[in-house]
Amino acid sequence: EEKPRKRTREELRALWKKAIMEQILLIRMERENINLKARMDAVETKRTKLDYDEILPCSKNTLVMWDGMLATPNRAEVKFNPDELLAVVRAGVPKVRRGEIWRLLSEQYQLRNRHGSAPPDIPYEELIRQLTSHQHAILIDLGRTFPSHKYFSTQLGAGQLALFNLLKAYSLLDREVGYCQGLSFVAGILLMHMTEEEAFHMLTFSMYLLGFRRQYRPDMVALQIQMYQLSRLLHDNHRELYEHLEKNDIAPTLYAAPWFLTLFASQFPLGFVTRVFDLIFLQGTDVIFKVALTLLGDHQDLIMACQGFENIVDFIKNQLPALGMVSMEKVIGRVFEMDISKQLHAYEVEYHVLQEEMISSPQRGDVDRMEKLEQANRNLKRQNMELLEKLQTSHSSIHSLEATVASLQSEQNKLRSNVQTLEIERAALLNTVTKLRRLLPDNCLIEEELNFSIVNEMRANVGLPPLSKNNSSSSLEDLDTEVANITNKTRTILPSQLRHRNMSGDSIGSSVSAGSTASSDLLCTENLQNNTSSCRPLST
Asked: Residue 263 carries which DSSP code?
């Protein structure tokens, strides 16, 4: 045998170099697989976030216009034409790029409006590492925020964790507001279209620069002013509807407070809510009044057709949000054409004047009565918010139960189908057995009848009830099984009978007689088994 040739230094170096290059290639391929999986997960998460129906799909021309605006160099410092921006927003906003477009609109709003208090400059990463005193309230509201949306429905899933981080960070940033019910829906809408940190910056922009934080303050004074403004808008623009609501003691607080606190997100379809957000980032807080006024005005006839406090409130809270996408798009189209900024300013001044007159009144009794009424009003508002939470929880439970019922009904239908299939198979098998019996020779059928009578005699000997032909086994194999069972039982009974007779003092002759009887039964059983086994090839 020849010895293997010793490799030279150059050959070993080449082998090492090849092995190292292959290992590097494997590492690169593994890294690329990890990056590819991460990109696929990101795409799937984005698809889950954007799982809602748009009320106005974008045309190709609109997409081209948005692409051009988003690709503008130094766009944060470039002012676009307001009319052009309004026209392209009215034409539609693609939901896959809605987050980028909202940031663009916020930049344009800040360029046109320099007023507004700037938020504290604290990084988001630093805020989420801290603890907040509002943690319990935030955790309770996580399950109530978009419970039917796939991204937020999983308990402590990715959506709920992101929502918790965002709300916790804002409660630490804005110590005066902290956390208020309704903020979770606003934050949830933002998280559907952007990352946590981007959503945090958009939330601070909405609260500080757009001025929404006023309505979330603990005293709720700004919300009271908004309810007064909405009531005055109804009075001046839809007098009959206003009088109908006043006649039934229905104040805007009963139905419009959730609209303002959640920006319509808690009750209306997501496609409609995102269009409202498009307008809010373009025009500011006036959009909420315009949408509320248009919703009530466009459906005035339907509301006035409802009689009674409960029917009216039920229609406004439950039936109005479910009127359909076409109706919602008409509402959005009317909002683009409205301008009520001057009216709102006049109503706010009017509210403050009335408040000052009531406070400066010399009649102390009126002041005391007013304070009691305000206290009662606050209590009623608190109760109303609690009832609203219970109602939302009930709606969530109803949706879950409806899904369970639908699943059980589907399972029941499948079982019924299986039962019908089995019944058809049983009928076919019975028909086949009948045909096979007709093919058997006559002598085999006679032996089967004889065996059946012998089985009944043996069952009578061991104390079992006789078999009827209707309930008996329809095959010779079943008859063999019955004979074997009776044989085993006879063999079990025989020793016990012998012992019993010996203990009772019976004669040896009777024991012999019993033994011979049992032996004859066993012999008969064996003969029966031989008969049935001899007939089995014929049945086969």
From this structure: T
Q: Say what the pLDDT of residue 537 is.
A: 36
Q: Got the DSSP string for 427-481?
A: HHHHHHHHHHHHHS-HHHHHHHHHHHHHHHHHHHHTT-PPPPTTTS-SSHHHHHH
Count CB neighbours of 285 within 10 A. 19
Amino acid at 307: Q
Phi, psi of 205 (to 5 degrees): -60, -45
Q: What is the average pLDDT value for the chain, to the nearest integer?
A: 82
| Cα gap 358→370, rounded to integer Å | 8
Residues 88 and 65: beta-carbon distance below 8 Å: yes
pLDDT digits (tens, 9 = 90+) for 82-134: 999 999 999 999 999 999 999 999 999 988 887 667 788 899 999 999 999 99
What is the rounded CA–CA span in Å between residue 230 and residue 293? 7
Burial of residue 331 (number of CB atoms within 10 Å: 0-12, 13-18, 19+): buried
Name residue 146's amino acid. F
Confidence (pLDDT) at 300:
92
Separation CA 153–CA 144 (nearest Å) = 9
d(CA 329, CA 275) in angstroms, rounded, equals: 9
Who has greater pLDDT, 215 or 528?
Answer: 215
Tokens of 289: 């009044």
